[in-house]
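User: Quick one: structure for sequence A, then sequence B.

Assistant: Sequence A:
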Amino acid sequence: MENNTNVEYDDKLGHKRIRVRRMTFSMRLIHWINVVSMITAVITGLYIAHPYYQTFMADGAVDKYVMAWNRWGHFIVAIIFDVTSIIVSYLFFFSRFEKHYKKVLPTKKNIIEFWEVFLNLVTLNRRKNFDSSHNDSFNAVYFIIFHALLAWMLFTGLQMYVHGLASGESSIGAWWPWMLHLITDWTVPFSAWVVGSATETASIMDVRILHHLSMWVIIIWVMFHIYYQVWRTIFWQEGDIAIVVGGSKFMKVGEDGNKDVSVK
């Protein structure tokens, strides 16, 4: 295994373990940048949709630009999400550490592994017939769904942004609004179709509604992601939750699906 650090030892319970590298420093850094950005995006997004606090100063909130600051913060973290998504998309295909795209290809091996990981979850670890030393197909597909949701938030967010440039001009020229319209206008009829527009024609409000609803889908995704990583840590006892901190896990060797794993 290319991501094996070849450190073998016996734990206090007599299990033979090896320390396995699973995330590089750059991937861990991107993960935590996304965590902070997502928390900020949710807080500011909720305020933009329905202002739920005001300044405690003597002047009114409107004089302290509370909405403006929330919109600015939302826009900045959206840009950060865009940049990290581009980097992650590149690493998904061309990373020298682990090429994750190979795990989402509909091959017989990947389909079987996806099913086995799912069975492992629903049977509470009573069945474990897969190698847990690498990123499995179940997590890889889950990873794709998350970034597809982020891409959707990107397109709908840019559509709402360009809607504010009603003049067709921007500080960097007319080409910028034109390009944004070109790549995001499709979100308007699609959003109207999904939410069931109350009007005869699709409008930007349909995009706002679906953008807001998609946020709750992402929150549910994050909740399951955290739950599942804690679940794996408890049931597998391989320190999976430590991967996003130190980059490694401590895998049992010669048990369940790891019977064929050995130290090189």
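Sequence B:
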Amino acid sequence: MYLCCVIEKQYVVFYLLNLIIVFDMKKKLLFMLLTGAMMACFAYQSEAQVNDGQIQEWRIYNFQMGGSAARLDRLMTDILLPLYKDMGIEVGCFRENNQNSPAAYYYLFVYPSFDAYLKANDILLQNSAFVDAMKEDAAGTRPMFFRYDSYLCRPFEAWKKITPVAGKTIFEWRKYDSANIEAGTRKVEMFNKEEIAVFVECGVNPLSFGQIIAGKDMPGLIYVTHFDDMADRDASWSKFSSHPEWQRMRVAPEWANATLPNNRIVFLTPLPYSPIK
């Protein structure tokens, strides 16, 4: 009898040990599954952050003090645009609708990441054709352009991607200034939360929105809309101006004093070689 009890106890202990081992293996398996899932989530989040890390740069080329727009055209078409394409950088090339000659050029560069922005010039300087063109320009008596202004912008959350619509001929470039960074950030929030939706509803077609993070006359923001023609532009803005939602938000206390009254408006036309048009 005693021997049977001992044997039964041994079986019980053996059974319990197996349960513990199985349970421990299940815990390890569960841990491995959870770890894999977490790593996959982190990888997805990292990829999303990279994909959402787009940076925009507006360059305004000035020819008023001398220069040659035709030479800049050739540089862009023959050398720069193919190089930017290889780097995954989108480019928009526009001419100011200015009756007074020479008109300024407005170039939009859309970098897939801030790192791509930092490396772009280094990659250009490794290209012999580009370097030769720059040396020839520096040795000449008349440079290709006088100077250019640069605005580095972070895309708005509500409109991160450049969205051109084929057939639009009028591009309206606007720069809004704010008294300080708090007011400027509220204006960006106003666009993100309310204003952009009313734009779209009224036919004010957005191309891009960006908060200036480096450049002259800060703080501020730059956005571009596009239209079929001036009649379409005037009708769309008229519809927006009378929209009940705009009438409400323009006097809402949370958006008070978000911008200064000295906003800048420039009408642009895409250059024939512009990839974004």
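The chain is about 45% helix and 25% strand. The chain has two domains: 1-51, 52-270.

User: Thanks, that's what I needed.
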